[in-house]
C-alpha cells in the first residue's frame, strides 16, 4: 500500500483512548500520555499542514492516537525499559501467539484421533463417495473467436492422442508441461479428493462416470477443453489417504467448534450488530467497552474483546464489516466468541510455545523495534550518549517524535510506520494515556482554518496579479504559430 493510503487507513481506524472526559478544565489539551501533553495548537498545526490527512473527526482522533503512542514508546525507551521483556513480547504479538498455541493444541487433538489404515483407505476408495481426479486443461477465453477455439481444440486433441498412446502413463508429465490450470499444473494435474458436485456440471458429469484407471475424451467446460483421468488406487493410495485425513480434520474442526459452543450454551445478545457497527467506527476506545455481545457458561464476550480481534484483522476487511447485514454481523460475533472459547480451551490445556516459536516471535518483535527506532533516529545508545539525566533523555526523545511526525505529515519526507496496535496497547497501562474530546473538536476547527489558509495562499501564488475583468482578448493572427518551449 502507498504511504498516503496507509496513513489514512491507520488514522481512520486508530480511534482514541479510554479516558475521554478528564479535561473539562484544560480545553487547550488534546491528549496526554507518559507525562507528555499534546496541545490543541500542536495537533491543529500537524493536521492542518498534513495534506494527505482528511480533516474529519475520526482522522484527527487517529492522528492523536499516533502521536500519543509514539510519545509512550519514545519515553519508555528514554526511561530504559526493557523492550525485549518476555511478557511484553507476548502481549505485543498476541495474534501470532494465539495462533501458534491453537495450532499446537489442534495437533494434539488430531493426533489423538486414529489415522486411517490401509484397509480403511482402500474401502473409502472403492466406496466412491470421495474421488480423486487428474486433468489437463487447454483454456479458452470466454470471448474467444471461433478460430481461436478451433485452434485450442486441435491442441487438446493432440494431447489426448499422446496420453491415449501411453494409456495414461504419461498423464502427469504432460499435465505439468501443457496444462493451463495453475492450481493443479505443478502437481501433475491432480485435483483434491472431493465428493460429487464440487466441479462445474460439464466436468463433474463426465468425471464421475469414470472407472478406476479410466480416462475421458475431450470435455468442454466454461474454462476450456479438459482431459480427465481417474487414477487407479495403487497409484494414489498414499495421497488419497492424506486427502481423506485432511478432510476429516477439517470436518473435525468444525464439529469440535460447534460442540464447544453448544456445551457452553453460547448466545449472541440482541443488538449485537449495532454494537459491532459502533465499535468499527472507533476501534481503540472500544478496547475499554464492557458491554456484552455474547454470553456463555463461564464467561462473556464483550465489545472490548471484539476490538482486540478487529486490531488483528486486515484493516481493509474491518472497513467492509460495517456494510454487512444484521444477520451477518450476528454470525460474525458468534464466530469470534467461538474463537474465544477455543483459546480458553488452549489455556486450560496448558499449551506452551516451543523454543522455535519463541525465536520466531522474538525475531519479528526485534524487527518492529528496529524499524521504530530507525524512523525516530533514536536508540538506547543514542539516548545514553546524548543526555546525562532521565528528564533530559525524555526531552530528547519527545523532540525526535515531533521531528519524525513533522517529516511524515507536513513535509512528506519520511515513511509512515505506526506503532503496531498490540505493542501500543501493551505499553499504555500506567502511562496516563487519555484524550480530550473538546480539545479534539477545537483542533479540528483550527486545522480546517489552517488548511483553508494554506490552500488559498497556494492558489494565489504566482504572479500575484488579479485577473482582468471581461473575456480573454482574441490572440493576434500569428499567435497560432508554434512557440518554442520555455
Structural notes for this entry:
The structure is a single chain. The longest helix has 31 residues, at 233-263. The protein is elongated. It is built from 19 helices and 9 strands. The strands form 3 sheets. Strands 2-1-9 form a 3-stranded antiparallel β-sheet. A 3-stranded antiparallel β-sheet has the order 3-5-4, sandwiched between helices. The protein has a 3-stranded antiparallel β-sheet with strand order 6-7-8. It has helices spanning 3-14, 40-48, 57-78, 86-92, 94-111, 118-127, 146-165, 171-178, 201-207, 233-263, 272-281, 303-312, 315-321, 326-348, 355-376, 380-386, 390-410, 421-427, 437-460; strands at residues 29-33, 36-39, 134-139, 215-221, 224-229, 267-268, 292-296, 299-302, 434-435. The protein is mainly alpha-helical.
Structure in a nutshell:
The chain has 486 residues and is mainly α. It has helices at 3-14, 40-48, 57-78, 86-92, 94-111, 118-127, 146-165, 171-178, 201-207, 233-263, 272-281, 303-312, 315-321, 326-348, 355-376, 380-386, 390-410, 421-427, 437-460; strands at residues 29-33, 36-39, 134-139, 215-221, 224-229, 267-268, 292-296, 299-302, 434-435.
Q: Helical stretch count?
A: 19
Coarse shape: elongated
The major sheet is characterized as: 3 strands, antiparallel
Spans of at least 5 consecutive residues with low confidence: 1-25, 463-486
Strand content: 5-15%
Percent range of helical residues:
55-70%
Rg over CA atoms? 31 Å
* Count of distinct strands: 9
What's the pLDDT, averaged over the residues? 87
Q: How far from one another are the termini?
A: 37 Å
Largest beta sheet: strand ordering: 2-1-9
What order do the helices and strands follow?
HEEHHHHHEHHHEEHEHEEHHHHHHHEH
Structural category: mainly alpha
